[in-house]
Structures are given as structure tokens and as C-alpha cells.
Amino acid sequence: MPNTRRSIDSFGPGVVGLNPMFARPGEATELARFSIPDDESLPETAYQIVHDEVALDGNARLNLATFVGTWMDSHAEKLFAETFDKNLIDKDEYQATDVIETRCRTILADLWHAPEPRNAVGTSTIGSSEACMLGGLALKRRWQHARRSAGQSTDRPNLVMSSAVQVCWKKFCNYWDVEARTVPISEERRVLDGHDLRSYVDENTIGVVALLGVTYTGMYEPVEQIATALDDIQAATGWDIPIHVDGATGAFIAPFIQPDLVWDFRIGRVASINASGHKYGLVYPGLGWIVWRDQAALPDDLRFRVAYLGGDTPTVGLSFTRPGSHVLLQYYLFLRLGRDGFRRVQQATRDVAQYLSREIAAMPQFELWSDGSDIPVLTWHLRKGPSWNWNLYHLSDRLRMKGWKVPTYPMPEDLTDLTVQRIVVRNGLSRDLAGVFIADLHAEVAFLESLTVPITTLGQRPGFHH
Ligand SMILES: *Cc1c(COP(=O)(O)O)cnc(C)c1O
Description:
By secondary structure, the chain is of the alpha/beta class. It has 2 domains: 1-57, no CATH class; 70-466, Type I PLP-dependent aspartate aminotransferase-like (Major domain) (Aspartate Aminotransferase, domain 2, 3-Layer(aba) Sandwich). The protein is 33% helix and 15% strand. The strands form 4 sheets. Strands 3-9-8-7-6-4-5 form a 7-stranded mixed sheet, with helices on both faces. Strands 12-13-15-14 form a 4-stranded antiparallel sheet. A two-stranded antiparallel ribbon has the order 1-2. A hairpin with a 5-residue loop joins strand 12 and strand 13. Helix 2 (74-83) packs antiparallel against helix 8 (325-361). The mean pLDDT is 92. The structure holds pyridoxal-5'-phosphate. Pyridoxal-5'-phosphate is lined by residues 67, 127-129, 132, 166, 168, 211, 213, 215, 246, 248-249, 276, 288. One of its GO terms (biological process) is L-glutamate catabolic process. Belongs to the group II decarboxylase family. Its cofactor is pyridoxal 5'-phosphate. GO terms for molecular function: aromatic-L-amino-acid decarboxylase activity; glutamate decarboxylase activity; pyridoxal phosphate binding.
């Protein structure tokens, strides 16, 4: 796919020209674009400029690439409008919001089977990325404490994870000087499953990341099996290696539609779990969660107390000021949907994913890689064998012409020869709309199949896939 991103110069010269319809007498008709304009504009004018410019953004409804929620009901919007001025960190001023945040993470600790939900610790974050950084930091700090008290070196920590981790784990390792040890995925082992784990871990391993919902494919890693492998390693070596479950997507899916799957705090080795409130938590962008199993899992020296906003509450987090409204929206949804409502929403979403899987598997050009039976995400690739006059990047382009955004990307290291296409089904992609997509897919594949010579692959590059 050619690079479709606009450059910052693509809106023309360094000034914003005002449509004469909107210009008021005496008002400038050109405003500097890359420096702050010299003069004021009327609020109507400034509003119109920003409003018109963002109208060029894509149509979120047809974006099948992202996990992030883009729709909430009108009551949620009303609540948002009433509360977007609340600063979550100001726990003294906004005590009620603070109490609701605690309630939400206690609800999550309970949903994820913490032994004593009210004794679990955790926090909301700006997203799973921040939550993963905190989870990783707690693993690192616990390992450092244990090593130091045994008089051992803390020079070379490592973290073990699948090669198909979301980029936040590579960031964590890079930003906090931890070696990332990646276990490659392959045709036979599509997820990290504990196989051969012994050759990746050692006394410097701060933890293992298990993905409940692999970003690349939507598949669950078998957390219980990984824990058993670590039990065997502990029995043989004495190394007690904890697990952090990156449940960015699946931690809001599994408790509702796969309640018998054991992946959470029911497993003693699971120290912490994160999830994105703004993915299958169904809230607008800007909300993540992390919960530690108990007080001991989050070292005390990672908690801070600040007195300068009044009051004195311990906090953990990488950021400080954050909107409180998103947390209130999460609580609204817990009340509004309840366990059964969440189950029905997530089940409906997965039904659509499985419908799409069946339709795509039935097309002779494609082979499914994952079918949406874990989180509602499916991936497929071109059937191997025939030589095709087109590839999946061309198909992404064709679908884009009908408004659909369906990313094409190579699998991670050691499997980069395999290029896949992925659909993330979210609440809002109805069965009807999915039917329209399948009709469009058939039409575009038929067009590509009608070509008698190969199309150029010049300028193709992977689409967004995180
Ligand atoms: C999306 C995702 C993240 C990052 O989450 P944000 O909420 O976007 O910061 C981390 N891990 C996994 C598995 C994800 O799917």
C-alpha cells in the first residue's frame, strides 16, 4: 500500500485561508498555520476551521483496524459533558470520583478473581500502555528487592514474551533497560504456550508476559499452561517467576463469554493484569486499568504520596493530571450493562466475527489464520501455492475505496514472510454491516482476479496494526 498518510504540508501553504462565507468584516482571512496567529478570531471562525479540518478524518464506523471504542450512548455523552473538567489526580477535590475509581478497580479485581478483591491494588491509567509500563516496573522492582536482599547482582534484568507482543512491551524494555527476550511464533506454535520456556528464562527473568488477546491475531495465550511450565522450572531451579497478563483486549471479553477459561488471578503465579477500558471496556479513548493481585505484588516504593493538592493519598502512575470523566463512564457501563449486558454485547460481537470468519474461509483465495473464537478478531492470508497477480495490500487499497479500513501487515520476526489481513470486530459492526462488507469483499476480489497481469507492488508497506 502506498504511504497514504498526509504530510503536515499537505493542507497547502503556511497559512489557513478562510472561506469567504465565514469571514466577518475586519477579520483576517488568512491565519498562520505553523506559528500562533497574530490576532484573535471569532469563536465561530476558529470553531469552523477546526471542525472542517477534522472532517477529513476517516469514518470510525468503517474502521475495521482498530480496537478502540468510538461509540457510546447519549446518557454516557451527557455524563461526559457534565464531568470532563474533573481532574482524577486531585483526589482531595474530587473525592467522589476517587471513590468511584476505587470501586471500578475493585469490580475488575473481583471479575478477575483476585483472592480478596478489596485488598487488591490498582489504578486507572491513560491506556493499557501505561498500565503495562507499571506492571513491568513492579515486576522489575520486586526482582531487584529479592536479588539485593540475597546479595546478588541486579545488572541484567530480562522479560520473556512472545514475538507478537504489542509495541508497549518493547517500549517498556527499551525505556527501563530490561532485555526483551522474545519467543518466536511459528506456523505450528501460533502463541507463546510455555513450550521450551526453560531455554528463555534464567535467574535474571523479572517475569513472563502472557497475552490474553494477541494483537496480531486475536488469539489467547494459554496462561494456565505457561504457569505450569513455570512451576516445573521453579521445581528444577528455584526461580519463582511471576506472570503479568496483558489482557488489553481479552480481560474485558473472557470473564463474560469464556467464564470457564482459567487465565486470571485464579492462577497463583499471575501477579498483575491490565486491560484497556477504551477497547472492549466500551469507553471512549483514554482509559486503561491495572490490578495487582494483592498489596505484596506492588512494592511500596513505587507508590507516592502527595500533599500539595490537600489530603494525602498514595498514587501510582506515570502521568499526573488526567481526565476523571472516563472512569465515570466505565462505572456508568458497569451499572448500565451489568454482567449480563456485557455478556450479550461481547457475544454479539464475537458472533459477527465468526460469521465473517466463515464467509472468508469459504472464499477459495483465502486461508484463515485465526477465526475470532477468542477475542472477536480474525486474520487470514492468501492461500499458499498459486501465484497471484495481486496481494493483500492491493485488496486493502480496493476496500479503502469503499470506505473500509482493513489493515495488511507482515507477522512478527521469524514469520515475516507471512502477510495477513485482520478485522477487529467491535460493538457497532452489526451483522448487517458485516454483510455489506462481505459483499464488497467479493466484488473487490472478483476485480483483482479478473486481472491478467500482475499489478505493481511498488511503494507497498504495512498498514497500522497495533
Ligand atoms: C492495544 C494493546 C495494548 C496497548 O493498549 P493502549 O490502551 O492502546 O495503550 C497493549 N497490549 C495489547 C495486547 C493490546 O492489544
